[in-house]
Amino acid sequence: MSKVSFLGAGSWGTALAIMLANHGHEVTLWSAVKSEVDMLSTYREHKDRLPGVKLPDSVVITSNLEEACTGYDLIVFSVASPYVRATAHDAAKFIPKGQKIVNVGKGIEDNSLKTLRTILCEELPDRDICVLSGPSHAEEVSVGIPTTVVVGATSKETAVFIQEIFMNDRFRVYTSSDIIGIELGGAIKNVIALAAGVCDGLGLGDNTKAALITRGITEISRLGVAMGGRMETFCGLSGIGDLIVTCTSNHSRNHNAGVLIGQGKTMDEAMKEVNQVVEGVYSAKAAYGLAKKYNVSMPIVEQINEVLFNNVPATEAIKTLFSREKCHEYPDVGWE
C-alpha cells in the first residue's frame, strides 16, 4: 500500500481520498480553507459537497501544507483550476525533486492559455507530473459506483505506478502517453457542457443535445490534434466519455450552471446558485483563445463565450450556430 496526499479537499479530492483509504492506502487530505478542515475533522464528512458520505477514520485531515507535501509516494493535486498555480507555488519549497504528482483537476488558465499540468511543471520543475481524467463524478466514486478513467504520463513506468495505486474492483484505470489530449478533453468538455445545459434550460430536446455533443467532440478533437493530441484520445474516456457524462448528468456543475443561464440567469447568478467552481466558465475564454491561436474553427465555444461574456441571448446564439454557411461534415471524406 502507498502513502498518498491530496492537495485540495473539494468534492473530487475528497471522493478519491475516501476511495483510496477504503482500499488500504495511507491518505492525507489537505485544504487551505479553515472552515473546510474544521468540518471534515469534526464530522468526518464533506457536508457541503458529499453529504452522507463518511471519511474513513484513517484519513488524516490537515491545513499544514508542509505536512501534506513531505514523505509521500504520491501527491494528488485536486484543487480547483483557478487555484492550481498559487497552490503549487506555495507547495514548491516542500515538495522534493523527483516527486510523483498526479493532477486530477480540469481546466485551462485563461490569461496564459496553459493547461494545468503545464502550470504545475512551471511551478514544480524536476518533478514527475502526470494527469488523470475521465467520466467520473465525485458523488458516484465516493460511494463505489463503477467508474473508468485514464492516466497520462511521460513514461510507462509512472503511468503504471499511478494505475496500480488507483485501480480496484470499482475503479478501472487505463494508461496513455497522450497527456495533452487527455487534458484538453477534460478541460474543454466543461465548456461544451455549459452549452448543453443552456439547451436544457431553453427547453430544447434530445435532438439538439445529441447534435451539440457530437459537434462538441468534433471541436475538441480539432483543436486537440492541432496542439499535438491524438484523435484516438478524443474518441476515448477523457474525450467523448467525459463529454457525455458532463453534458447529461445532474451531478455536473457545468451542466447545471448552463441550465440556469438558459432559464435567464446571468453567469454570475448561475455560479452563485450552483455554489461550486464552474470550471467551464474559467475555461471558455481560454478555449476560444486557443482556437484563435491555432486557427481552428470552434463555433460552439465561440457562441458560449458570447452568451457568458457579451450578454448575447442564448436563443440568438443557437440561431447563429444554425445559420452558419453550409459545409461538408468531414472535409476529408468526400466523393471521388
What's the quick description here?
The chain is α/β, with parallel strands linked by helices and 336 residues long. It is 51% helix and 13% strand.
Structural features, described:
The protein is α/β, with parallel strands linked by helices. It is 51% helix and 13% strand. It has 16 helices and ten strands. The chain has helices spanning 11-22, 34-43, 65-69, 84-91, 116-123, 138-141, 156-166, 179-201, 206-226, 231-234, 237-248, 253-262, 267-274, 279-293, 299-309, 314-322; strands at residues 3-7, 26-30, 60-62, 74-77, 100-103, 108-109, 114-115, 128-133, 147-152, 171-176. The strands form two sheets. The protein has an eight-stranded mixed beta sheet with strand order 3-2-1-4-5-8-9-10, with helices on both faces. A two-stranded antiparallel sheet has the order 6-7. Strand 2, helix 2 and strand 3 form a beta-alpha-beta unit. Helix 8 (179-201) packs antiparallel against helix 9 (206-226). It is globular, with a radius of gyration of 20 Å. The N and C termini lie far apart (59 Å). The mean pLDDT is 96.
How do the helices and strands line up, and which of them pair or pack?
Layout: E1 3-7, H1 11-22, E2 26-30, H2 34-43, E3 60-62, H3 65-69, E4 74-77, H4 84-91, E5 100-103, E6 108-109, E7 114-115, H5 116-123, E8 128-133, H6 138-141, E9 147-152, H7 156-166, E10 171-176, H8 179-201, H9 206-226, H10 231-234, H11 237-248, H12 253-262, H13 267-274, H14 279-293, H15 299-309, H16 314-322
Parallel strand pairs: 1-2, 1-4, 2-3, 4-5, 5-8, 9-10
Antiparallel strand pairs: 6-7, 8-9
